[in-house]
Design brief:
The protein has about 220 residues and is α+β, with helices and mostly antiparallel strands. It has helices at about 5-10, 40-55, 60-75, 135-155, and strands spanning about 105-110, 115-120, 125-130, 130, 155-165, 175-185, 190-200, 200-210. A hairpin with a 2-residue loop joins strand 1 and strand 2. The protein binds dodecyl-COA. This is Acyl-coenzyme A thioesterase THEM4.
Length: about 220
């Protein structure tokens, strides 16, 4: 990545808040960043991706869409900020903490004993033949496995390995139940398990290792 792009994607930290471990020691959560309609904005972006995934525009319409998207991207270019201060990833009142890169989930229970969430894979999470992409299932497990680890150790960790067993088809557009919990702690090693169900049917399960980061570790 060239320097200009690197600057673009790594905007300077806004307040130099303490940096212990790969994530901030102080993880700000918010329900206000981006304004009261930020969730609606997220939903429109997700809908855009759904529509793009299944669209077959004419050449003329593609020209029009490029112009529209350039206009939107221009507006967003004016409000770029570092990752620690964005609504995306910190808006705990919104699906997947307002992070549109993660399949949308709503946490129904979370604590040191684990996390339970309702998750719905969107049309744009298509892998093939109307089923979710295996990588998207892994993204969901990584995020919620990381959350189970964080809540158990009250600290930050990074994924060392993430094994997903795909037991049956994971449907799109269907509310599913995802659970993650810490099975075992061994020093800095946090062993996490997880399941993804449609009703009683097991779609996938997780076996992962997260490593608690040392102070200052990137
Ligand atoms: C409410 C808001 C929530 C917010 C919740 C937010 C959730 C977001 C979650 C997203 C998480 C991510 O995607 S993180 C991004 C993906 N992951 C990464 O990029 C990690 C890249 N890898 C690394 O940085 C490193 O390898 C680490 C940090 C994983 C480990 O390096 P290290 O810290 O130097 O530790 P190291 O000494 O190597 O290993 C420590 C111990 O773990 C063992 N170990 C290390 N790796 C492995 C491995 N793959 N398989 C088996 N064992 C391993 C070692 O043998 C050792 O055991 P012993 O000798 O002690 O017995």
């Amino acid at each position: 990545m060239n320097d200009a792009l690197d600057d673009q994607w790594n905007p300077t930290d806004q307040d130099g808040s303490p940096h212990e471990g790969g994530f901030r020691a102080r993880f700000d959560v918010t329900t206000e960043r981006g304004g009261p309609r930020y969730g609606e904005f997220n939903e429109q972006v997700r809908l855009l991706m759904d529509r793009v995934r299944y669209a077959c525009p004419t050449g003329e319409l593609t020209d029009e869409l490029i112009a529209d998207l350039k206009s939107i991207n221009g507006k967003l270019a004016d409000v770029q900020i570092d990752e620690w201060h964005t609504p995306a990833g910190t808006r705990i009142d919104l699906p997947a903490r307002g992070n549109i890169t993660v399949p949308p989930y709503d946490v129904t229970d979370a604590g040191p004993d684990g996390v339970t969430a309702q998750i719905t894979f969107r049309p744009y999470h298509l892998g093939g033949n109307d089923a979710a992409h295996g990588g998207q299932v892994a993204v969901a497990f990584d995020d919620l496995g990381g959350m189970a680890s964080a809540l158990k150790i009250q600290g930050v960790s990074r994924t060392a390995y993430l094994t997903v067993n795909y037991r049956s088809i994971t449907p799109l557009r269907t509310p599913l139940t995802i659970r993650t919990w810490v099975e075992n702690l061994d020093g800095r090693k946090v062993y996490v398990k997880g399941t993804l169900h449609e009703g009683d049917r097991l779609c996938a399960d997780l076996d992962a290792l997260f490593i608690r980061l040392k102070p200052g570790q990137p």
